[in-house]
Structures are given as C-alpha cells and as structure tokens.
Design goal:
It is built from no helices and 11 strands. It is mainly beta. Strands 2, 4, 5, 6, 9, 10 and 11 form a 7-stranded mixed β-sheet that branches. A 4-stranded antiparallel β-sheet has the order 1-3-8-7, with no helix packed on it. Strand 5 (46-52) and strand 6 (58-60) form a beta hairpin. It is globular. The protein starts with a strand and ends with a strand.
Length: 130
Amino acid sequence: DVQLQASGGGLVQAGGCLRLSCAASGFTIDDYAIGWFRQAPGKEREGVSCISSSDGSTYYADSVKGRFTISSDNAKNTVYLQMNRVKPEDTAVYYCAADSSGRFTIPYITTMRPNWYDYWGKGTQVTVSS
C-alpha cells in the first residue's frame, strides 16, 4: 500500500525557517521522482521542488530557488524540504507526491505538473506571518 506522509508544517515568522518531511511507505523513493507542491487558498497547485534520489538531480521553481533545499535519505525512505528565508507568500498547504516515471527527466523539466504524479500524501499547512 503506497503512502506518503507529509509533516513539519506550522507557523513561522517571515525570514525564519522550517523543514518539511515526506515519509514514504509501500515503495522505494529511489525508484520515483518525489516532488513538493503547494496550494494557497484560491490558487492552483504549484510545483515547488522535486528530486530523484537515484541520481541526485533536483528542480526548483523560480519562486523558491536559493531559499529552499530538497534532499533525500534513502535509508529512511524520506524526502525533506528545507525552507529558509520564508516569505508570507510561501503560506500554503504543502503536499508531497511520487512520480513513477520521472526520476530520469528532472534535469530537463522547466515546470512541475500535478498530473505527472501518481501518488499523493495529505498536506501540511505552512503559515508565514509578516
């Protein structure tokens, strides 16, 4: 049974930091591309970052590049999103998802589309106060 469990959200002041975790079960993360998406009220779901833990390739949306870092721990079957210098516009529900066919294409993507992803976890709320 494939499951993704996102955690680590909370309330943080602008300029602060937060680390989100995505614990996977029922599959091995290095067989998948693992992505983080976010959705703010009234907005479409936005791809934030993704990683292939099999080759270490990563992608970041322009809005988070230089502030967020995605990483993976294969031994724990977990992907992390380190969020630094957060801004009020980072406020959203953050979701992690798994793409069964994307782990070798990350170096070539220019965006992340939700419909590429096969499995989704429940979200974790991140709220950044100004």
